[in-house]
C-alpha cells in the first residue's frame, strides 16, 4: 500500500470513528509509514523537529498513543519502536515478523493462533490484557544475501 493510500485510509478510519486526525498525527503516521522497519520515538522526534520547531517528546508520545489506540500503528515491544498498520479495520490481534538484519517488519493475522492462546488462558483462569507476538529472524532477502 502506498503512503498516500495509507494516509487516505487512516483519514477515513478516523472519520468513521469520529476522532480527529490532526496534521501532527497525520505527519507522525506518514513518517512511520516511510520507514520499512520500526521507527523509535526519539528518531521520530528528530525528524519531526526539523519541520516543527515546537515538537517535543509529549507531542510525539500523544500522537503515538492516539495512532495506537486507533489501530493505525503498532508498537514493536522488543525494539521499542513503531510500525504502521496497513489494515486498521482488522481486530488487531496480530503477529510481527522482524528481520534482525534489515529491520523490515511484516504484520500477520493468524487468528487461529490468537484463538488458541485466548482459549488456553481462559481455561487457566487468566485474563489477557495485552498480547504481543514477535518473531525475530531473517527475511528472505537477507537470507539470500548471506548465501552469496
Please describe the topology of this protein:
Layout: H1 3-17, H2 23-33, E1 39-40, H3 41-49, H4 57-69, E2 73-76, E3 81-84, E4 95-99, E5 105-108, H5 111-123, E6 134-137, H6 140-147
Parallel strand pairs: 4-6
Antiparallel strand pairs: 1-3, 2-3, 4-5
List keywords for this structure.
Arc Repressor Mutant, subunit A; WH_DNA-bd_sf; alpha+beta; 6 helices; 3-stranded antiparallel sheet; 2 domains; 47% helix; Fur_C; 3-stranded mixed sheet; Dna Ligase, domain 1; 148 residues
**Tally of DSSP β-strands:** 6
CATH architecture of the largest domain: Orthogonal Bundle
Instruction: Supply the CATH superfamily name of the largest domain.
Output: Winged helix-like DNA-binding domain superfamily/Winged helix DNA-binding domain
The string of secondary-structure elements, in order, is HHEHHEEEEHEH
Helix-and-strand structural type: alpha+beta
Looking at the structure, what is the overall shape? globular
Strand content: 15-25%
Amino acid at each position: 500500500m502506498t503512503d498516500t493510500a495509507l494516509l487516505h485510509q487512516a483519514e477515513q478510519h478516523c472519520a468513521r470513528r469520529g476522532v480527529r486526525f490532526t496534521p501532527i498525527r497525520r505527519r507522525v503516521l506518514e513518517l512511520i509509514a516511510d520507514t520499512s522497519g520500526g521507527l523509535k520515538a526519539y528518531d521520530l522526534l528528530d525528524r519531526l523537529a526539523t519541520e516543527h520547531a515546537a515538537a517535543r517528546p509529549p507531542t510525539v508520545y500523544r500522537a503515538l498513543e492516539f495512532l495506537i489506540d486507533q489501530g493505525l500503528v503498532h508498537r514493536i515491544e522488543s525494539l521499542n519502536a513503531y510500525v504502521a498498520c496497513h489494515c486498521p479495520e482488522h481486530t488487531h490481534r496480530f503477529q510481527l515478523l522482524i528481520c534482525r538484519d534489515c529491520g523490515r517488519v511484516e504484520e500477520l493475522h493468524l487468528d487461529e493462533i490468537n484463538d488458541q492462546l485466548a482459549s488456553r488462558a481462559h481455561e487457566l483462569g487468566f485474563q489477557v490484557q495485552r498480547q504481543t507476538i514477535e518473531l525475530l529472524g531473517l527475511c528472505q532477502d537477507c537470507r539470500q544475501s548471506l548465501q552469496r
